[in-house]
Amino acid sequence: MAVLEQTPPAVVRPSPSQPKKGLRKYWHLYAAISPFYLIFLGFGLFPVGFSLYLSFHRWDGLGSMEWAGLSQYQYLLSDSDFWNSIGNTIIIWALATFPMIFLAMVTAVMLNSAVRFKGLYRVAYFLPNVTSVVAIAIVFGSIFSTNAGMVNAVLHAVGIDQVAWLNTPWGIKVTIAALMTWQWTGYNAIIFLAGLQTVPGELYEAARMDGAGPFQTFFRITLPLLRPTLLFVLVVSTVTGLQSFSEPQVLLQTSSNDSTFAGGPGHSGQTMVLYFFQQTFDNNDFGYGAAVAWGIFLVVVLFSIINWRLVQRRGD
Amino acid sequence: MVLWYWSGGLSDTVVKNAKARYDSSVDLQAIQIGGQYRSKLITTITGKAHIPDIAGLKGEDMAAYLPNADQFIDLRTLGAEKYKDQYLPWKWDQGFADDGTMVGFPIDCGPVAHFYQFDIFRKAGLPYEPADVSKELNTWENFFAAGEQLRKRIPGTMLLTDVNSVFENVVQQGSKRYVDKDRHFIGDQEHVRNAWALAVEAKRRGIVSDLVNGTPDQLSAKQDGKLPSELGASWAAFDIKNGVPKTKGRYRVADMPVRPANNGGSFLSVTKACREPEQAFEIITWILNAANQAQGYVDAGLFPSTPASYPLKQMQEPDPFFGGQVTTDIFGPAAQKIVVAYNSPFDIALGQPLKDEIKNVGVLGKDPKKAWSDAMSKCRRIAKHLGVSY
Predict the structure, then answer these.
(1) Do the chains contact at A255 and B36, CB–CB below 8 Å?
(2) Does residue B332 lie in a domain region?
(3) Which residues of A touch B356 (CB under 8 A)?
């Protein structure tokens, strides 16, 4: 109605044509915000919709599509390799996320109380996150290699047998998780730091007056007030962790003409997205690949809901 | 006229010469496509936009292109038959789709040979001159026995990196793979069982390492002479030169046991979108003639599919990396003795469970019987899903 009042009376028309007029008058404003929506429509919404359509078909990417009904989804449910990849992803995610959150929290608290070189520390902790995953994975591949690796050299020095990190099911998962932890700790520490700085100083002062020690202060004041931040960190880590792809792909690829999406011996490092790539691009099975992608989507949604509930409840 | 290829897919010198040579009649734009080559090519073809006129097709992707031969121009209609005699017959046949359409014109091939370290073999009391190695290690039994002797004489030394190199090379040596022309699964037949048994035997006799191909561990083992032997295609020579440059002069090349296999090798095609197919075909045949293929070998390690290239000077140069050996003496005759299997679009999906499970035997020590039955039940499931009869 505000629109109506501002328009000169001469152009006011009967109410049914009001919206059309508004659109005509403000088209340049709509045009100004349209690029995002048009690009999103073309490169976001359309592919999403198309992948849903694709998942009900059989398609090799070049020839004609063939209607497959629900058979791709039926096969997905009975596909032990897909379930294995879900298991791998969740284990790797857990191995990476919980140590990462702990380390990030500790780092954030230390950064918060640091007096000198604050900026330098923050930049340094953020660096791993903006480094190319491929480069990191190559370096980690060397660090965790069996005979020439640094990790095994350290283990050897303290008298522990060497571990074939990239050649055993658990070694592979731990290596991938270590890489992800290293990459994301700094980023999340910065997020926690931002959260810490919103905690009012008076609360700490009051706590100190009441005789609370540093641990009590942390668990009774800092942690509860950081809950929204923790939720954000958990959800983001879940979404990225459940979609891990480059880390296992680069760590476990071999130079022979082996599939680069197989995820090492026993598929131990084959995450959901790696499995999606294998089905789609190794096998040219685009219909099934689309079904796998929707399966991944459901798993991610499920985990985000679980995260949400857990963190919500803890505060009640 | 747009030509798509990938880095190392053609000799850059030859491409540049082709551009100059046909400059008066056509504007040849040769573009190196990075990243996922096949995905990008499929995308332009499916999207019907910006399709290159001439497209390189990687050997491992041929099975995906051939069922869609209608996207390409049948090279027979452009007079390909008259070039047939100049190319390796098996390689020529690989460019054909089931319906008889000729989709791909041969670029290179990848004859597999036995690379080994001369001094280590001599120290272990094994034959060490290429001719002797070829002659004496000519069966898998002799090859494995040599591996046992090697380990006994020089402790800590293994003949091969993994069991997969045995399994896959034995399968590649044969004229059958995993799925036949009638869309029937044949990965449970004698030829695969035999390859499986040999791979298991290699493991049992303790001649394979627990290392992974291409890792720093494997490269350092090669450099230290602890992994002095490998079965690799002609292009593996470049991997060795780049991966372990310090071994210069120590490696030699001999025939692989039993008979040569092929691994890799690409094609050029003319797409349906091409408006001057005759001109495109003329350019292709020039780029891939015997003289230019010899140049491709020098520039990019592309082993020629034209036997007339082998006696040319560029290919008869002694290679100092291989102790002055003329490696064409091994790869050339090998290339002419290769037989190939039918290239099914379902081979990748149905070969993968077997490769995965033999790897589990080799690396994780899984019971071979259990691994075989797991592979078979997986294959049965995948075959059903893909509409392949089992």
Answers:
(1) no
(2) no
(3) 262, 266-267
Cα–Cα distance for residue pair A82/A84, rounded to 1 Å:
5
Strand partners, B267: B57, B106
Structural domains in chain B (count): 2
**Domain extent at residue B290:** 2-109+263-327
Report the alpha-carbon angle B199-B371-B59, nearest 5: 60
Residues 6+ apart with CB under 8 A from A195: A108, A225, A226, A228, A229, A230
Beta bridge partners of A40: none
Q: By residue range, what is the domain housing residue A234? A: 81-315
CATH code, domain carrying B300:
3.40.190.10
- Chain B: nearest CA to A146, how far in angstroms? 7
**Pair (B169, B297) in one structural domain:** no
Calpha distance B284→B286 (Å, rounded): 5
For residue A66, is it within any domain?
no
Reported as a single tens digit per residue, the pLDDT across A56-96 is 999 998 889 999 999 999 999 999 999 999 999 999 999 99
Paired tokens of A235: 């959800």
Specify whether the backbone of A60 is left (phi greater than 0), alpha (psi in -120 to 50) or beta.
Answer: alpha
The residue-averaged pLDDT of B357-368 equals 94
How large is the average pLDDT for residues B99-123? 97
Dihedral sign, Cα of residue A81, residue A170, residue A247, residue A104: positive
Q: What are the structure tokens assigned to B370, written together?
A: 């259990």
Q: Which of B40, B165, B215 to mutate to test the interface with A (most CBs of A within 10 A)?
A: B215
**Domain assignment present for B336:** no
What pLDDT is recorded for position A213?
Answer: 86
| Contact yes or no for B64 and A61 at CB 8 A | yes
Across B296-300, average pLDDT: 93
Residue A20 has pLDDT above 80, yes or no: no
CATH of the domain at A231: 1.10.3720.10
The number of distinct structural domains making up chain A is: 1
| One domain for residues B234 and B362 | yes
Cα A282 to Cα A67, A72, A81, A174, B59: the distances in Å are 21, 17, 15, 26, 14
Q: If you write DSSP's letter for every residue of chain A in order, what string do you get?
A: -HHHHHS-GGG---GGGHHHHHHHHTHHHHHHHHHHHHHHIIIIIHHHHHHHHHTTEE--SSS--EE-TTHHHHHHHH-HHHHHHHHHHHHHHHHHHHHHHHHHHHHHHHHHH--SSHHHHHHHHHHHHHS-HHHHHHHHHHHT-TTT-HHHHHHHHTTPPP--GGGSHHHHHHHHHHHHHHHHHHHHHHHHHHHHTTS-HHHHHHHHHTT--HHHHIIIIIHHHTHHHHHHHHHHHHHHHTT--HHHHHHH--SSSS-TTS-SGGGTT--HHHHHHIIIIIS--HHHHHHHHHHHHHHHHHHHHHHHHHHHHHH-
Among A75, A251, A254, A259, the strongest candidate for a mutation testing the B interface, having the largest count of B CBs within 10 A, is A254
pLDDT in tens, B191-236: 999 999 999 999 999 999 988 888 888 999 999 999 999 999 999 9
In 3-state terms, what secondary structure has residue B323? coil
ipTM, two decimals = 0.89
Strand partners of residue B251: B117
Is the distance from CB of B183 to CB of B388 less than 8 angstroms?
yes
Distance CA B61, CA B124 (A): 41
Looking at B277, B298, B327, which one is the last position of a domain?
A: B327
